[in-house]
Amino acid sequence: MSGRPVIAVDVMGGDFGPSVVVPGAVDAARLHDAHVLLVGDTHKIEVELRKLNLADVQFDIVQADEVVHMNEKPSDVLRRKKNSSIQVGCRLVKEGTANAVVSAGHSGATVACGMFIMGRLPGVERPALATMLPTEKNPVVVLDVGANVDCRPYHLFQFGLMGDAFARDILGYAAPRVCILSIGEEEGKGNSQVKEAYELLKLAQNINFVGNAEGRDIFVGDIDVVICDGFVGNVVIKMSEGLAASLTRMVKRVFMSGVLPALGGMLARKAFRRFARTIDYTEYGGAPLLGLQGLAIVCHGRSDACAIRNAAKMAAAYVRKNANSRLAEIILANEELTRFSRAV
Amino acid sequence: MSGRPVIAVDVMGGDFGPSVVVPGAVDAARLHDAHVLLVGDTHKIEVELRKLNLADVQFDIVQADEVVHMNEKPSDVLRRKKNSSIQVGCRLVKEGTANAVVSAGHSGATVACGMFIMGRLPGVERPALATMLPTEKNPVVVLDVGANVDCRPYHLFQFGLMGDAFARDILGYAAPRVCILSIGEEEGKGNSQVKEAYELLKLAQNINFVGNAEGRDIFVGDIDVVICDGFVGNVVIKMSEGLAASLTRMVKRVFMSGVLPALGGMLARKAFRRFARTIDYTEYGGAPLLGLQGLAIVCHGRSDACAIRNAAKMAAAYVRKNANSRLAEIILANEELTRFSRAV
Fold it and tell me: Which of B246, B264, B271 shows the shortest C-beta gap to A136?
């Protein structure tokens, strides 16, 4: 290894495969001082590499014979596709050859392979998928967004701890305001799972827990970490994506509804483009699966080269800051509480 | 009674109290052919009535001595505030003096009083709060949005049945496409509760169940009824409200970001105003609590007179169409299935 973070990139994943993943990974290696391992079909990777400028790029190719299809069950991928690019990527981390893996492929399979091949950090009950959403101020971290659909209160509790560590190290927030997503701001509001997790979070060591948040608080920007179970979190992120897309289409229709609005739209076009960039999901590239020995980043299937590059950039930053050590620390500092809640 | 629907309106509820609720109720009586019972402090009601034109308005005043405050527990309101405007309103329905009750007060207390004073229709396990959200096409009915935070699969199942009946009778949809909110479109995706409810919905009599919906599908307009538990539903509606408000503020900031965008904004202003009206929540006025003997409509605390009027209008339409009879019918047609699921 070169001293640089080594990032394994599953080039076979995503809607566009090697043609966008390879250039994205190569860009990350050049711009963000990482060593990338391009995992997949060597021939296809070489075809893409020939189109690129490879000066100053540290990379290796790691052959993987199999590809995971979107309709496969995560458990089947784990059992049967030992040579799939995602399994090979996770094993590179497990063996210590790579520090992190990035994939835009089957997200369920990536989560399963990350969890079972790379393994969990000591004390972590369930790794959590975190995502960053744009708000009116700074981005907010929401977790879990789909790795754990049926949760117990101590799972939610640990999501808060891991979200805190991530927001501090990767987003640079000094004392992240950690909330649990509920249906009222007052203590005592929520379903039974949330109410119990609230009790644990109040007692947590070393985090700035500020209570319940409601759905309407997420986008204002006054909270930094939002805890929820993976079912709720997945609904939330897909819904915000869907609502933003629908509103965008509706606003476009407003501009096309007459001559004056159309003229207005032309005048405001540049400003809208700048705005669109500020709420662009590709800025963060992907959703980190937190709590692993190493790190896996799950990218959107529709990721373009820029999203892949940013995901690899985030992975490199995570490794460089040794963010897992803070995460392990806060999990251990709260181990008694977790164990107590698990026992009752 | 006059043959007209009789709607009890809790005039003490909401952020603005009698000053907006009384004119809203009076407008409903005049424009939508209802007889309204203004429930609350007689003196305050009379003060408001003096400001209004009461020609052709059928109404009565029903004195209620107590007012419910927002920080009270629903169970305390139910036990101790027998003379609160919301309890008196619900009793008017229970006794057969009114057909429905409308309140913009404490929503938890309204749900509790509706459930325990008015009682459930035969076979209904849990009344559900339904709301209508604007989409790119026709409005979609989402339920439950907060009456039941901890649900069993057969509760979700019955929400689907009640949502179907409501969409047919009140929105006039011929064969509403009923979905369950989940984290993937394929059968077998979701948490354990959703997966079991899916099995029940597949077997349901007389509804057009079309499978799972994801968060991103809600606002496109290709589904008509979305089923979820009250925790998820409450998060969803508050989040969509919050995201829409945040995006609106951000778009305004775009228009103020320079001379050209500002000019563009002026040209498009009228078209945007028309658009804002199409996604205005006050159009539906409130969220009906379905499954009761009678009907309760829970309005937003911030309701203006127009929202109250539209809530009373919806209540009157509900009564006129005898929508509870269809609801009771579909619940009974699926009683065996509900009972089976409850037993396992």
Answer: B246
- Phi, psi at residue A239, to the nearest 5°? -70, -40
Euclidean distance between the first and the last CA atom of chain B, given in angstroms as a whole number:
46
Q: Which residues of B touch A261 (CB under 8 A)?
A: 267-268, 270-272
* Residue range A1-124+291-322, CATH number: 3.40.718.10
Amino acid making up residue A196:
E
Query: How near does any CA of chain A get to the CA of B111, in Å?
Result: 15
Residues forming beta bridges with residue B133, ordered by sequence position: B140
Burial class (CB in 10 A: 0-12, 13-18, 19+), A150: middle
- What are the residue boundaries of the structural domains of chain B, listed by start? 1-124+291-322, 128-283
Q: At what angle do helices A42-49 and A18-31 cross, to 10 degrees?
A: 60
Q: Which two tokens stand for residue A113?
A: 């392979």
| pLDDT score of A326 more than 60 | yes
Q: How many CB atoms lie within 10 A of CB B336?
A: 11
For residues A309 and A29, what is the distance between their CA atoms, to the nearest angstrom?
A: 8
Interface contact B246-A220, CB threshold 8 A: yes
Q: Which CA distances in Å does A23 have to A49, A256, B338?
A: 8, 37, 55
Closest-CA residue of A relative to B180 is: A235
Answer CATH for B128-283 from 3.40.640.10, 3.40.718.10, 3.40.50.150, 3.30.43.10: 3.40.718.10
User: How far apart are the C-alpha atoms of B152 and B196, rounded to whole Å?
Assistant: 9
Backbone dihedral angles phi then psi of residue A154, each to the nearest 5 degrees = -70, -20
How far is residue A17 from each of residues A30, A66, A85, measured CA to CA in Å? Answer: 20, 13, 11
Predicted confidence (pLDDT) per residue in B96-120, tens digit: 999 999 999 999 999 999 999 999 9
- CATH for the stretch A126-283: 3.40.718.10
Residues 156-195 of B with CB under 8 A from A: 181-183, 190-192, 194
pLDDT averaged over chain A? 92
Q: Are B180 and B198 in contact (CB under 8 A)?
A: yes
The string of pLDDT tens digits covering residues A85-131 is: 999 999 999 999 999 999 999 999 999 999 999 999 999 999 999 99
